[in-house]
């Protein structure tokens, strides 16, 4: 199996799923122009062994206007994602191209 999970940390707090478009817009407005960490954990395993892996990516969001945020939320409807963006869809456009990643095996 390969279970995967992600957590978003902004200003020292874990940011969960918004569940509504209004809350998504609020979360994105707070993170606009600022940096946060996206922590992703994966564990590949079978009956004999398991290999855990954690990746910490520091993301810097562009400074976005409320209108830009509203348009994005209506486009991707990211209410079911931590931090209210879908990086694999149009959410990548919310970020500066400068981000770095640290990876850890066998924590």
What does the average pLDDT come to?
A: 89
Query: What portion of the residues fall into strands of 2 or more residues?
Result: 35-45%
**Beta-strand segment tally:** 5
Q: Note the gap between the termini.
A: 18 Å
Oligomer: single chain
The strand line-up of the biggest sheet is: 2-1-3-4-5
- Poorly predicted spans: none
Q: Which overall shape is indicated by the principal axes computed on the Cα atoms? A: elongated
Question: What pattern of helices and strands is seen along the backbone?
Answer: EEHEEHE
Radius of gyration over all CA atoms, rounded: 15 Å
SSE class: alpha+beta
Task: Please give the largest β-sheet.
Answer: 5 strands, antiparallel
Tally of helical segments: 2
Name the helicity range.
10-25%
Write the layout of secondary structure elements.
Layout: E1 4-10, E2 13-15, H1 21-31, E3 35-45, E4 50-60, H2 66-76, E5 100-105
Antiparallel strand pairs: 1-2, 1-3, 3-4, 4-5
Helix pairs in contact: 1-2
Structural account:
With 107 residues, this protein is α+β, with helices and mostly antiparallel strands. 21% of the residues lie in helices and 36% in strands. Strands 2-1-3-4-5 form a five-stranded antiparallel sheet, with no helix packed on it. Helix 1 (21-31) packs across helix 2.
Question: What's this, in brief?
Answer:
By secondary structure, the protein is an alpha+beta fold. It has two helices and five strands.
């Amino acid at each position: 199996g390969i279970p995967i999970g992600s957590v978003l940390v902004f200003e020292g707090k874990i940011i969960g799923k918004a569940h509504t478009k209004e809350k998504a817009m609020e979360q994105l407005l707070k993170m606009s122009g600022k940096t946060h960490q996206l922590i992703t954990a994966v564990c590949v395993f079978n009956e004999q062994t398991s290999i855990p892996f954690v990746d910490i990516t520091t993301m810097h969001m562009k400074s976005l206007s409320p209108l830009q945020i509203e348009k994005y939320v209506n486009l991707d409807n990211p209410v079911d994602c931590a931090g209210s963006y879908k990086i694999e869809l149009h959410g990548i456009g919310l970020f500066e191209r400068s981000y770095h990643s640290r990876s850890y095996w066998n924590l």
